[in-house]
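Priority: medium. Attachment 1 of 2:
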């Protein structure tokens, strides 16, 4: 028992001696109490760690049961909506900035289009009499044809009778009758080659031959061999491929930038690296009701028939330049329902959301008509997080101002 008491006394003496030595070194050898620094940082309010919108004037608990954290005066900018972020946090968020520039913007339109036949070269084949397709030489859509190539042979009683009348007129001495019979054959679609054969052979052909008038491909085939046709029947359509149209679609907001004669450029995925140069041939007079786009026609020479109808194409239309204007990267713009915004970088980790008035978009740049000056640094990456925090700060500041104004009105009423 006595041994235990002795050990306890020794431990107590050692503990007191250690505390005394520690205080001696902490005050520089003077054991007299030092005067503490009474200067403290000013606390504006207390917020919830997970919800900056939850504010209190004194310490406490958040709705989630967490301790409220203080917000100090030296951490908040005096301007409403300005937030200050620690440089480490800025780096972790991957925040990047870029300056607003000034200069002309090209009214350049990047859109899509589809290749189609040049409708000026389309040849629609119809018969001028009733009859039957006795022999169909071209049997499938897409088949190539050459000028002068036989397309089909037609049997028509009307044409047989017209040939017999012409041969009877040839045997007579009546020149007027011969001329009238010849004209009737031509009106019924008989070619000059077939009329010349009648003059030489003086025999009626039961089938009248129809030939292609130009090189091309069968764009549409509406009959089969043996079918009965009338003048209203579209037998086939022949289209040339040495020239094609590209129908591009332009958004309504860019419709005023397009006019005939502008330079155009086309790229296709299946021929990477190659670009076709052309000009705008025609701007259609009305917008498509479904897509709200304006159709623009561009004509291209198609050497080698590389461009094929219904292919998808990327189209660039080159318009005139604007006057010098402040412009920023398109990725920096935050689109809003009532206003567009950017996030200004004020330096030293301070940021503020800025409402801007936008102009035209050209490529990856957007014109800013009001709200920015050349040289202002704006956030181009991570701006959405900063903007949401800035917007909360501004809203709370407006609420506080409204509450103060209401209190003053109440005091005046009393």
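Attachment 2 of 2:
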């Amino acid at each position: 028992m006595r041994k235990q008491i002795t050990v306890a006394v020794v431990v107590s003496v050692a503990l007191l001696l250690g505390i005394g030595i520690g205080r001696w070194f902490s005050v520089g050898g003077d054991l007299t109490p030092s005067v503490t620094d009474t200067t403290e940082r000013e606390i504006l309010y207390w917020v919830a760690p997970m919800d900056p919108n939850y504010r209190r004037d004194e310490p406490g608990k958040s709705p989630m049961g967490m301790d409220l954290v203080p917000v100090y005066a030296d951490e908040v900018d005096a301007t409403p909506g300005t937030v200050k972020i620690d440089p480490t946090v800025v780096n972790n968020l991957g925040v990047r900035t870029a300056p607003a520039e000034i200069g002309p913007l090209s009214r350049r339109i990047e859109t899509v289009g589809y290749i189609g036949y040049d409708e000026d070269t389309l040849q629609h084949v119809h018969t001028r009499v009733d009859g039957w397709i006795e022999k169909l030489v071209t049997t499938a859509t897409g088949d190539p044809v050459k000028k002068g190539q036989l397309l089909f042979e037609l049997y028509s009683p009307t044409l047989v009778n017209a040939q017999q009348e012409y041969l009877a007129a040839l045997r007579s001495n009546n020149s007027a009758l011969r001329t009238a019979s010849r004209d009737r054959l031509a009106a019924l679609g008989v070619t000059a080659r077939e009329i010349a054969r009648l003059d030489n052979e003086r025999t009626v052909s039961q089938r009248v031959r129809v030939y292609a008038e130009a090189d091309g491909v069968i764009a549409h085939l509406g009959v089969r061999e043996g079918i009965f046709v009338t003048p209203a029947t579209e037998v086939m359509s022949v289209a040339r491929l040495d020239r094609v149209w590209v129908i591009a679609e332009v958004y309504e907001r860019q419709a005023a930038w397009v006019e005939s004669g502008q330079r155009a450029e086309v790229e296709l995925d299946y021929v990477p690296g190659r670009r076709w140069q052309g000009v705008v041939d025609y701007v259609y007079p009305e917008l498509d009701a479904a897509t709200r786009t304006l159709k623009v026609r561009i004509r291209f020479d198609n050497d080698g028939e590389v461009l094929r109808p219904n292919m998808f194409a990327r189209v660039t239309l080159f318009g005139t330049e604007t006057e010098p204007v402040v412009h920023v990267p398109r990725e920096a713009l935050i689109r809003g329902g009532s206003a567009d915004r950017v996030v200004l970088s004020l330096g030293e980790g301070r940021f503020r959301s800025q409402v801007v008035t936008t102009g035209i978009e050209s490529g990856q740049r957007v014109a800013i008509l009001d709200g920015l000056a050349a040289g202002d640094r704006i956030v181009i990456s991570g701006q959405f997080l900063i903007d949401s925090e800035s917007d909360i700060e501004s809203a709370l500041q407006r609420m506080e101002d409204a509450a103060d104004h209401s209190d003053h009105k109440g005091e005046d009423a009393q």
